Amino acid sequence: MSSSMAAPTYNRHQYTDGIIEKNLYVTESLPMLQVTQVIPMSGATKLKKLLSDTDELIVCPGVYDGFSARIALAVGFSALYMTGAGTTASRLGMADLGVAQLHDMKEHADMIANLDPKGPPLIADMDTGYGGPIVVAKSVQEYIRAGVAGFHIEDQIQNKRCGHLAGKKVVDKETYLSRIRAAKGAKDRAGSDIVLIARTDALQQHGYDECIDRLKAARALGADVGLLEGYTSKDMARQAVKDLAPWPLLLNMVENGSTPIITTEEARDMGFRIMIFSFAALAPAYTAIRTTFERLKAEGVVGTGKDLTPRKLFEICGLKESMQVDMESGGIDFLAGV
User: Which of 65, 193, 224, 229 is catalytic?
Assistant: First the structure.
């Protein structure tokens, strides 16, 4: 091909609210031409920009299945959190004792993240990474493919338990940092904006100073956000933000757990950047379902409110959107409604 026929190109990405405008410039002997292609912004990029471009406290309700995620989407939040405890309970019917593995967590996260790919970003629990460095790297790759925006990985032993139970044990510092290195390496090789959240559960076993030391080391390796699990006082939470500033920290608020209740306003004033409520759906669901089942057993009725029809429930799950897909494709099954 002669030099006069060459057609050099380059791309420029402009980030706007929720989308990327990809401008492709083509030059030959003609004047410069511009073609604009609108690409949805990934959840990872959305979360990254929320952290870098705003001072917002990102409040994430803990969702544990598709239905709780749909409700959170309907209410409207800046981001969502897929809880490991809730996933283990809803998917496996078991306690959060390290039972859920990569397949369980990745499949669950994939489903939730893609209920609305243009919606709020999803942060997901990745527990310990489910193995050594090779498995940790694979776990990160799987989460990236699933559309997860951010994940936290911790320093508990593989035979782990919920961060708000007693008797936790953690691996040594170097083993923990090998997990962070593996996760960071996988993220970099993929060229992904996925947010790496370094979590430590060392408070019970080794105390506050060891937690800060581990998080500083994780930060030095390139972790984007820190998470100290199980603060035992508000003063400790406030001090952690100061000790690790200006690094963004995530607060896991589990009511009736190890940490005293901290409101979103208090967390914002302390300087936290992300706040997850791991049991925000699971605990109220237990209360409501058990109360209803006990009434059914005792009285023979469920007692559902008259305005809560099957159609209303299905609308939360995307009924109208599914009907629209069918009709726009030439289908006739829903012309008469449902």
Answer: 229
